[in-house]
Amino acid sequence: MTAISACGGDGGSDTGASGATSATKGSAPAWCGTKDVKVSLSDGNGADTWRRITRKIAELEADKCPNVTGFVYTDGQGNTQKAISDIQGLVAQGVNAMVVFPDAGKALLPAMRSAVKAGATVVPYRSPPGGKAGVDYTDYVGTDSDQYGILWGEWLVKLLPKGGNVLYLGGPAGVQQSLDRLGGLKSVLDKHPGIKLIGQQPFNVTNWDPAKTQQVVTAALAKFPKIDAIAADYGAAMDSALPVFKQAGRKIPPIATEDSNQLACDWKKLSKTNPDFALYTNSSQNWMVRTAIQAAIAKAAGGTPPASLNVKNATAEDSVSGKPKPPQCDPSLPGDAILSSGLDKANLTAVFK
User: Fold this and answer.
1) d(C-alpha 208, C-alpha 111), whole Å
2) Residue 248 above 90 pLDDT?
3) What domains can be seen in the chain, in order of their start residue?
4) 111-139 pLDDT per residue, tens
5) Cα–Cα distance between 175 and 167 in angstroms, integer?
6) How many other CB atoms sit within 10 Å of the CB of residue 107?
7) Low complexity composition bias: which ranges (predicted)?
8) pLDDT per residue over 172-188, tens digit each?
9) Which of 52, 147, 120 is nearest to 338 (CA)?
């Protein structure tokens, strides 16, 4: 299989190996089907480490099928119009199995709908795009995003028995994933009137960007003399903001977020001087792209689709209970690595070369 990138600022492409050993016909999973299929993964903004790891997982999954003739990756670079143009361009390239992270939400529906009408299988995943499966796109691979917030909330109320101020950091403005997690969080915190969500409403916008997250946390520390806990959509970006607490002369509060190698390593180091810095994480769930890839290929190639298109999540780490395990730091891996991704050390290291 050939992996093609189309994510540069000029829209150009380069070709390289996918990094996996292609499957033989005898060993191909049932979801591969038999028809030739060209696969794509489209990100609305592929700059962060979560996307880079997820892209690698997607390439490796597609490479299990000998009938996959190519893999194309596109990066909208945070520009909605480019993300739309990327999807339109994939049709022209003959891609017939598309997986889309719909950062721009409903704005992508016309492009996805047109791709379906042109004969492509289109599977958005993780962040609900609106619209209707079978009409605006083929299928949607989702997760229980509200469950993230519920788990965060249940953990936080145990640490804040007397109440307190909670800062919630979401992604891009209006993104459904962050709104769903907020809904789950509020469903728990609203039962505890002494706990208040503070800052920008409905959530503090970070764009899942480390530099932006630093800015948001710095501004919050300046505005609020009391921040008792933080819930954050993206653990790696949250980690980048930890130094601003020392700069502001403040201690790091409890944090509930997604797992990140650097975050776990920094917790191990900083919790010694920040006694309230407890850490709870869910799996960052990069691996759910496998289900989206399987669903897209199966539909396009006549394979057996996944049994479920809803991917469940659960607790990854908890520094308080130690269950299912305490924060996991692997100093032999890059800080941006996500240990729950399912990639082995060689592939995780390769992502960041």
Assistant:
1) 24
2) yes
3) 2-140+286-313 (3.40.50.2300), 145-282 (3.40.50.2300)
4) 999 999 999 999 999 999 999 999 999 99
5) 17
6) 16
7) 15-28
8) 999 989 999 999 999 99
9) 52
